[in-house]
Amino acid sequence: MTFASNRGHQQSRSSSDVAGCVPLYEADNVVLSSAAENLRLTSVSVSGNLLPLLCVTPLLGRPFTEEESNGTGPRAVVLDHLT
Amino acid sequence: MLNSHPATVVGVLPRTLDFASVFDPGTQMDLFVPLPLTKRSNAWGNNLTLIGRLKPSVNLAKAAAEMTVLGAGNPPYRSQKRQGGRIGGQQDCGVSRFARGHGGQRVHAPTSYPHAILACCASVEPLTLGLDEIERVDAASRLAARDERRCGLNSL
Q: pTM for this one?
């Protein structure tokens, strides 16, 4: 399993090796807008290694890339399944 | 657009991950965005919560005791407590309800100095990622937290 680290380089590890990551999170209110409507939602800022630590794979799409995780890539969002 | 900035939805989480009910009961988490581990994010203090995985053979009580000692010893926590400000969560620890379904026990704790705490916490697996950020934490603060941890653990 390959996932993004926060050290600026890609690392390949099995899911059993992810213990010891430093997943952090913080909640905030955001506005998600489209051409049709504006939605006020609760966002959670999470370190890129949170999902690997929890052994969670997105139902659709992918987790954050390394660039997205360290803030150098395009702004990315992962939705909760209820959103 | 997310807060008027372009953003791309890259994924949707599975129903099995009920993040809000486990880590922030009573709230709803609609979407997830990346939080870079930087010196700046480390300074956000009380708003950050860290999650770690317990080392093998370490039970939750031991980790909770250790985290409590570490939390009581870190400088930002104490300074805000003196000022009467609301602490962003007590230094409690808990095992997530979905832990069994996702591979082992985890410990999570709201903290005012997350990087230093994890760097000093012996009951959580050694850090393998984010070490460069931890190295940026003020050395004196880390040493102080470590010394206080030793004193606190000796008294347990």
A: 0.57
